[in-house]
Amino acid sequence: MPSWVTTGCAEYSKRMPSELRIRVTEISLGSRSKSQASSKAIETEGLAILKSIEEKDYVVALDVVGKSMDTDKLALNLANWQMDGQNITFLIGGPDGLSKSCLARANMCWSLSALTLPHPLVRILLMEQLYRAWSINANHPYHRN
C-alpha cells in the first residue's frame, strides 16, 4: 500500500479504544496476465481470504452490490456487534472484487458507495467510518450532525 494509506489507517487505528482493536491482514493479489482470465486471480485471492477468517467471525464483505448503510446505521451495527462480543471481519476485495465464495461466506454485504473506489481508498474510508461510528456511540465530539 502507498504510504498515505498506511499513515491514514494507522491514525484511525490509534484513535480507536482498546476494546475495538483493529487488525489489518493483507492478502497477496493473485497473479494476472493477458493470457489468463481475471477470474482465476479472484478465486486464488478468495481462497487465501477464506483461510484467514475464523469460523466464528461475523463477516462483512464490502461489495458494490451490497446494501448501503449510513453512518448512524453503522454505529448501531457496531454497538450490536460489541454487545454480541463477536470478531468482525471486513473483506475488501482486490482490483476485480471479491470471489463468489467470499460473498457466500459473508454474513452481510455492504456497499460503501455506488461509486467505483480504489481499494486503498476503501481501506481508509472504512477505518474512518468505524472510528466515526464509535465516536457516535461514545458521544465523542468527532461526529457532528
Description of the structure:
This protein has 145 residues and is an alpha/beta fold. The chain has one domain (3-25, 57-137): SPOUT methyltransferase, trefoil knot domain (Alpha/beta knot, 3-Layer(aba) Sandwich), CATH 3.40.1280. The protein contains 5 helices and 3 strands, in the order ααβαβαβα. The protein has helices at 3-15, 38-51, 71-84, 100-105, 119-137, and strands spanning 58-68, 88-92, 108-111. It has a 3-stranded parallel sheet. α1 packs parallel to α5 (119-137) and α3 (71-84) crosses α5. It is globular, with a radius of gyration of 16 Å. The N and C termini lie far apart (32 Å). The model has no long low-confidence stretch (mean pLDDT 89).
Order of strands across the main sheet: 2-1-3
CATH architectural grouping: 3-Layer(aba) Sandwich
Report the top-level CATH class. Answer: Alpha Beta
Question: Low-confidence parts lasting 5 or more residues at pLDDT below 50?
Answer: none
Shape: globular
The Cα radius of gyration reads: 16 Å
| Mean of residue pLDDT values | 89
Structural class: alpha/beta
Within the CATH hierarchy, at the fold level, what is the topology? Answer: Alpha/beta knot
Largest sheet: 3 strands, parallel
